[in-house]
Automatic annotation (TrEMBL), chains A, B:
Cofactor: pyridoxal 5'-phosphate
Top-level division of the source organism's lineage: Bacteria
Protein name per Swiss-Prot or TrEMBL: Purine catabolism protein PucG
Family, similarity comment: Belongs to the class-V pyridoxal-phosphate-dependent aminotransferase family.
One Pfam family recorded for the sequence: Aminotran_5
UniProt domain Aminotransferase class V: residue ranges: 42-347
Length: 409, 409
């Protein structure tokens, strides 16, 4: 074969629902040299990363670490380690990723119960409590921000409901963490997972996870040290987790003081995850959330001023992404391709019932910035006009700039 | 908390059993900017990576791709997708990683049968065939290079045996691929997996995998498109794979022409995997294997000339790693720490029965080089002497240099 050249990506401004353009310092971190997995520098970097993510999650959970895989790997690790076959799991579904949690729980042979609301809406706490009372699940699995619909499910009252009914509370915060408030301890989470490729501003491939002491107890009750490194006295529960890679008990032993070998930690992705959190905490967690709120408000004002109809319940939209209906007569995918070809700007469509019906425009991580928002709106205006939509001249950019101008310095 | 600084690893020459120092160009590749997951550049980079790994594996298998996780994720994806609960799996165990394959198959609820040989030995084809005849497995799962013992199990006759008995043949080549011959098609493999962090010279976190058409057929027979993106006519087998993340059917649909969203491909790790293969094929697959052979022979001559006893059946040693018994009276871990502290050189110990009994010294990927070998031997000589071992002055370096000098240019 003729060898391809070194990787040399085109210039792209990633304004879709994620992955988004990484922070430059995160990209630089990944080119740092490797060290051995038990090198004192490595174990220190792992411990630092754990501490950084405790701040990101707003938790005191000792069991705060990374799963070596994409955000979906984090979801599967949480579910397969917390759910025994036959356990009842309740999944409120308000978009594609609710279906995903249900699907992963089904594969773990849970008895899965779902409640659904229309795409573009969220659940009230009482709807969730009613379902808990009816289903009596072991685990509530609830997406925080479902990128497929852009909705942000309020979680702040759910932990207390779960505690009242003795239910473990797990949330997938992949799309929302870092760009919207998340308070693992204050909200009573037992488990939460995320990925780097959204508001954390890194590449896909590492999944931050945090587990409450109660969740760790469940995981520990199913412990099994693998043959080949097992020593006398090591546990071997018959009720073991049906996965080795995602057995959080073994992963905790690898990250914990025993440093018992499991996988070989993905060093470069650890460097990336560490830098994502370092950037976020360096700027300040609240400041980063406020920056996402500002950029999101500006983008919202911009698309509305372009005459686009925003999809879903705007009061419950995530700060970092907005969905707009594709105007009648505009060929959605062709227009997206033009935006990419002519301006190097990527926006997304959605899944299932929303595929081809909405565009999703993100303002996340590094790209939650004024120049990224205004550039995207200017390009979008041009493309919309080219495909025959009636758009006010300069309206989107002006409206967004006004939002930025009105923000406290 | 006080924020730690940017990641800044100490200088390390990683001469253990892996991870090893990555090729500089692989580190550089990871700092390339991200693109969207359906960007034409991204799908092209994925297709190029598939073609590159077909060459690395020596296969025409269309189903050649990456699993987003460490080498262990690749193993689990292969086993959980190919093995139905209750299926018989035969695992010949000649070190720690044989135990791992058995463990992963047990978790997949297979009926696992093992045969064992002493650590430091390999199996004859006839021993494997006898066990196949007795056990009648659906799948033979066999490690090629088990780093725990340094042994390289010959595979060239095993595929024909499996074909004769209608058994699927899977091998884990994590520790061996790129530094030792591997011929997926010529040897009749149905599935093979690896990682980047050994002879391929990259970081842990991406697992190359290849599947024969027969293996794909098994995987496809268990297909299930996930709810949320399922369309009319899509399959939903009741006999589904008990994992979503590792369901090779869905992963094939993501890498294949349908590009059906599964995980979000770990872009930076894809860049790394692509570059690992590009470096290998740019130098030439046979040339890289020969370089590993030469560096391995030199290291072997060097440690023998230092008076160290080599562990195991040297005739069946992998080219890229040697295990030596820790001399009587030398504190193994203290001496290893001195090598790291004083010289920045890492070597490894081993697992289970060999922990604290042997050191493992690797010559892999970028570090399968003369200067890396000679530097390691010089430092090892110094450390051995400091801890009271009787070592001939300069003997190790001289013996290794002679091997390099005698090599054809």
């Amino acid at each position: 074969m003729t060898l391809p050249g070194p990787i040399d990506p085109p210039a792209r401004l990633l304004m879709g629902p994620g992955p988004i353009s990484a922070y430059p310092s995160v990209l630089r971190a990944m080119s740092a040299p490797l060290v051995g997995q038990y090198d004192p520098f490595m174990t220190q970097a792992m411990a630092e990363t754990q501490q950084l993510y405790r701040e990101v999650w707003a938790t005191g959970n000792d069991a705060t670490l990374l799963i070596d895989g994409t955000s979906r790997a984090g979801i599967e690790a949480a579910i397969v380690s917390l759910v025994r076959p036959g356990d009842r799991v309740l999944v409120p579904v308000f978009g594609r990723f609710g279906h995903l949690l249900a699907e992963i729980a089904e594969r773990a042979l849970a008895e899965v119960h779902t409640i659904e609301t229309a795409w573009g809406q969220v659940f009230t706490p009482s709807a969730i409590e009613e379902a808990i009372v009816r289903v009596k699940p072991t685990l509530l699995a609830l997406v925080q921000g479902d990128t497929s619909t852009t909705m942000n499910q309020p979680l702040d009252e759910i932990g207390a409901i779960c505690a009242r009914h003795g239910v473990l509370f797990y949330s997938d915060a992949t799309a929302s963490l870092g760009g919207n408030p998340f308070e693992a301890d204050a909200w009573g989470l037992d488990a939460a997972t995320a990925g780097l490729q959204k508001c954390l501003g890194g590449p896909s491939g590492s999944a931050p996870i945090t587990l409450s002491p109660r969740a760790v107890e469940v995981v520990r009750s199913r412990s099994r040290v693998e043959a080949g490194i097992r020593e006398e006295g090591d546990a071997a529960a018959s009720d073991f987790v049906r996965s080795n890679y995602f057995d959080l008990g073994m992963i905790l032993d690898y990250w914990g003081p025993r440093r018992l070998n499991h996988h070989t930690e993905a060093t470069s992705m650890l460097y990336a995850a560490r830098e994502c959190a370092r950037v976020l905490l360096g700027e300040g967690r609240d400041a980063v959330i406020a920056r996402h709120r500002l950029a999101g408000d500006a983008m919202l004002a911009g698309v509305e001023a372009l005459g686009l109809t925003v999809f879903g319940d705007v009061a419950h939209k995530m700060a970092n992404v907005v969905a707009v209906e594709i105007p009648e007569g505009v060929p959605g995918d062709v227009a997206r391709a033009a935006l990419l070809d002519d301006f190097g700007i990527e926006i997304g469509t959605s899944f299932g019932p929303l595929h081809g019906r909405v565009w999703r425009i993100g303002t996340m991580g590094y790209n939650a910035r004024k120049d990224a928002v205004l550039t995207t709106l200017a390009a979008l205006e041009s493309v919309l006009r080219r495909f025959g939509a009636a758009v006010p001249v300069g309206g989107g950019v002006e409206a967004a700039r006004d939002v930025f101008a009105g923000a406290p310095a």
